[in-house]
Give the backbone structure.
Amino acid sequence: MRTLFARTPFAAVLVAYALAGCGDGDVQEVKQWMDDVQRQTPVTVRKLPEPKKFTPFVYTAKNEVDPFSPVKLTTALAKMQANSENGIKPDLDRRKEPLESFPLDSIKMVGTLEKPGLSYALLQVDQAVFQVKVGNYIGQNFGMITKITESEVELKEIVRDAAGEWTERKAKLELQENKK
């Protein structure tokens, strides 16, 4: 029985603490304070600004000439060429020669031929070899052959500069030797 009495005071203290935790514990005061603050604080809602009025853009230039049109560029270059004072221009009416359809950097000089009073250069494009002389045209920039030596072909090209003017520039093809 002694163990029963020893446990009883401990149980009584435990029950007393449990009942003390069930009390109000100043919670009512906190609830009262929150209600007072909520009543005293004014509710302010800012008015939303009026939406901006949308005015659609009307594109009025659709019937005008496109500034990026190749036709407009060609027309402008033709006017500039007509006003040009240097007199240099390619002969656009002549018949194109076969080597004018290849870029100059894809053409190789592989040799020369000489006949009495006339020199020929042998030029290779892909697997085909062409025989040319002074006065023939090669390359895509209206390049006319001006001189043929044993080691190179000199030519004069006619190209447009930044201002759209035709100008001459010199170029050459050097002999490509096969090293085996």
